[in-house]
């Protein structure tokens, strides 16, 4: 972690030098003088998938670290350290939500999308709500489809944002039933390619191919509702996919954001500022 901060945090304080404090009650482009450590954090590729996942989980209403879907979220120490450095020089200005959103975008070193800032952090975190709001990787298509629809996103957004799974390293617990106990009878998911499944089992769940590893991803790639769009994306250019992926990520980044007088700017990302608000 120290080496990553040598690469990624050297300009954290510098990029805030030209902040203009805003009181507008909406997201705002260019609120900070430049994107969060954009010149260096992209070198921390081992955190790219972790920060993307954290960004998605953080967008969910009143998500909580101490909830089973968040137990395996990595990169928390990185964000906490970034927040502490920023707070030391510019207390109460940069929210944890903005730090996570910008870091997730810049860490992947791939397509660039606009991240409007001035987000504020929530004042209530509930483990039960995180558990009920985060779609399971073992779910069928209807669960993530309903989740996205409830957030103002459509099936295309679901397909495109799921493209981020190509850089992830998943925990075996997320897909073990996919391999060994699909219907409760020690069987394998029939939609999982046999050679890929054998490789996963032989390598103790390590992913070494481009096949889908989550049941939810398999459902997306095989459903008639999404298959035609996926085919169109695959037949198009990489630039076209990037353009569509960027639009999906920008839409996702606006899920349930807090601005204006809503929420707060947390001093510590793990805790709300008032002990009376903690649950």
Automatic annotation (TrEMBL):
<keyword id="KW-0106">Calcium</keyword>
<feature type="binding site" description="axial binding residue">
    <location>
        <position position="165"/>
    </location>
    <ligand>
        <name>heme b</name>
    </ligand>
</feature>
<keyword id="KW-0575">Peroxidase</keyword>
<feature type="binding site">
    <location>
        <position position="64"/>
    </location>
    <ligand>
        <name>Ca(2+) 1</name>
    </ligand>
</feature>
<dbReference type="InterPro" id="IPR000823">
    <property type="entry name" value="Peroxidase_pln"/>
</dbReference>
<dbReference type="GO" id="GO:0140825">
    <property type="term" value="F:lactoperoxidase activity"/>
</dbReference>
<feature type="site" description="Transition state stabilizer">
    <location>
        <position position="53"/>
    </location>
</feature>
<dbReference type="GO" id="GO:0046872">
    <property type="term" value="F:metal ion binding"/>
</dbReference>
<feature type="binding site">
    <location>
        <position position="166"/>
    </location>
    <ligand>
        <name>Ca(2+) 2</name>
    </ligand>
</feature>
<dbReference type="InterPro" id="IPR010255">
    <property type="entry name" value="Haem_peroxidase_sf"/>
</dbReference>
<dbReference type="InterPro" id="IPR033905">
    <property type="entry name" value="Secretory_peroxidase"/>
</dbReference>
<feature type="domain" description="Plant heme peroxidase family profile">
    <location>
        <begin position="34"/>
        <end position="273"/>
    </location>
</feature>
<keyword id="KW-0732">Signal</keyword>
<feature type="disulfide bond">
    <location>
        <begin position="172"/>
        <end position="205"/>
    </location>
</feature>
<dbReference type="InterPro" id="IPR002016">
    <property type="entry name" value="Haem_peroxidase"/>
</dbReference>
<keyword id="KW-0349">Heme</keyword>
<feature type="disulfide bond">
    <location>
        <begin position="96"/>
        <end position="269"/>
    </location>
</feature>
<dbReference type="Pfam" id="PF00141">
    <property type="entry name" value="peroxidase"/>
</dbReference>
<keyword id="KW-0560">Oxidoreductase</keyword>
<keyword id="KW-0479">Metal-binding</keyword>
<protein>
    <recommendedName>
        <fullName>peroxidase</fullName>
        <ecNumber>1.11.1.7</ecNumber>
    </recommendedName>
</protein>
<comment type="similarity">
    <text>Belongs to the peroxidase family.</text>
</comment>
<feature type="signal peptide">
    <location>
        <begin position="1"/>
        <end position="25"/>
    </location>
</feature>
<feature type="binding site">
    <location>
        <position position="58"/>
    </location>
    <ligand>
        <name>Ca(2+) 1</name>
    </ligand>
</feature>
<feature type="active site" description="Proton acceptor">
    <location>
        <position position="57"/>
    </location>
</feature>
<feature type="binding site">
    <location>
        <position position="135"/>
    </location>
    <ligand>
        <name>substrate</name>
    </ligand>
</feature>
<keyword id="KW-1015">Disulfide bond</keyword>
<keyword id="KW-0408">Iron</keyword>
């Amino acid at each position: 972690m120290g080496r990553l901060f040598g690469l990624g945090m050297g300009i954290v304080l510098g990029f805030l030098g030209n902040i203009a404090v805003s009181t507008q009650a909406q997201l705002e482009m260019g609120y900070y003088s430049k994107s969060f450590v954009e010149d260096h954090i992209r070198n921390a590729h081992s955190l790219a998938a972790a920060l993307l996942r954290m960004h998605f989980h953080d967008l969910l209403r009143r998500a909580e670290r101490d909830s089973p879907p968040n137990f395996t979220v990595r990169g928390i120490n990185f964000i906490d350290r970034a927040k502490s450095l920023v707070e030391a020089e510019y207390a109460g200005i940069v929210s944890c939500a903005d730090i996570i959103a910008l870091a997730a975008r810049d860490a992947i070193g791939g397509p660039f999308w606009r991240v409007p800032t001035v987000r504020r952090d929530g004042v209530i975190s509930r483990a039960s709500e995180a558990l009920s709001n985060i779609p399971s990787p073992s779910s069928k298509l209807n669960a993530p489809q309903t989740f996205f629809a409830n957030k103002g996103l459509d099936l295309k957004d679901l397909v495109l944002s799921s493209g981020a799974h190509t850089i992830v390293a998943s925990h075996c617990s997320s897909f073990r039933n996919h391999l060994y106990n699909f219907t409760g009878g020690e069987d394998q998911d029939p939609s999982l390619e046999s050679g890929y499944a054998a490789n996963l089992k032989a390598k103790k769940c390590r992913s070494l191919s481009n096949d889908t590893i989550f049941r939810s991803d398999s459902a997306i790639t095989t459903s008639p509702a999404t298959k035609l769009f996926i085919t169109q994306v695959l037949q198009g250019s990489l630039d076209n996919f990037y353009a569509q992926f960027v639009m999906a990520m920008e839409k996702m980044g606006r899920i349930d954001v807090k601005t204006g007088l809503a929420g707060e700017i947390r001093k510590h990302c793990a805790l709300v500022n008032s002990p009376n608000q903690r649950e």
